[in-house]
Design brief:
single chain; about 280 residues; mainly alpha; two-stranded antiparallel ribbon; 12 helices; 5 strands; about 65% helix; flat
Length: about 280
């Protein structure tokens, strides 16, 4: 059989299939399902995702799921994961080492997973969020996505992320916005919970800069929400871990326990301090 005669019809069929796919019009509600299936197979920035997003946006430009998908596309595409050595480090940004090898002198060298970012693509991801924040300033989802992205990007010194958090706190204190999450109205309890989770992330990062932002934000939140024991616990943890000042830490933990006698963090950390003090007396 002549191979050229065989190849030509196959190529024609492929072209016709691609053209048919390009012209296919999906009902608006089907784009979300197709997007989710595609992401499961190829990831947020895999082959075909951007094309599908373009078609989805053309068909339904006001669909609130599209900006989230756009952000995920650019943010994921901007990332590159590497395994890097960190001599003398037992932890890196709160992570355990992915691998430990010996150097020529028999010393352990720990290797950690590290993510670097393409500046242009990361900038596109932030543009998506900034546009949504400008149009929907009371929607917490956009603020939280931006803070999370900046925290991941900045790593050891989350300066921009901390600035975003502080601005959000001050806006909550002065403007009393009607916060929403995914379009649903929420109260300040959820706002406090979100800020508390970023405080925990800063504490876990465990660098001098992140510890200081952890303290600053916790102090401000404790002043605004004095009945929330979480931020008192944070201040106690700062004194206990960063400053090694158990006496001052206990003061904060006792204040937290007055608000909530079953506060697990305060109870557990005070037990650790008591054991440490008992051991010191024995020695």
């Amino acid at each position: 059989m002549n191979m050229k005669k065989l190849i030509a019809p196959i190529a024609l069929i492929l072209l016709m299939t691609c053209a048919a796919f390009a012209q296919e019009e999906l009902p608006t509600e089907d784009f979300q399902a197709r997007y989710e299936r595609l992401v499961r197979n190829v990831g947020y920035s895999g082959v075909g995702v951007e094309t599908l997003l373009d078609r989805w946006e053309t068909a339904s430009p006001d669909d609130p799921a599209i900006p989230v998908a756009r952000f995920n596309y650019y943010f994921t595409k901007s990332q590159k994961t590497e395994i890097v050595p960190k001599p003398g480090e037992r932890r890196y940004l709160g992570q355990q080492p992915s691998l430990t090898l010996k150097d020529s002198e028999g010393n352990d060298i720990n290797y950690f997973e590290d993510v670097t970012y393409d500046e242009e693509l990361f900038g596109e991801a932030l543009k998506v969020l900034d546009k949504q924040i400008a149009e929907h300033p009371d929607e917490l989802r956009w603020h939280f996505l931006k803070i999370t992205a900046l925290t991941d990007y900045e790593k050891e010194s989350p300066d921009m992320a901390a600035a975003e958090i502080k601005a959000l706190i001050e806006r909550n204190a002065t403007a009393r916005p009607a916060w929403t999450l995914d379009g649903e109205s929420v109260d300040t309890d959820l706002f406090q919970q979100g800020i508390g989770e970023y405080c925990a992330l800063f504490f876990q990062t465990g660098t001098p800069a992140s510890y200081e932002y952890f303290r600053e934000i916790s102090e401000r939140m404790n002043k605004l929400f004095p009945k929330n024991p979480v931020f008192l616990d944070n201040l106690g943890s700062y004194q206990q871990v960063v400053k090694n000042n158990d006496k001052q830490a206990i003061k904060y933990y006792k204040k937290a326990l007055k608000l909530d006698p079953e506060d697990y963090a305060a109870t557990r950390n005070m037990q650790l301090i008591e054991r440490k003090q008992a051991l010191a007396k024995k020695k």
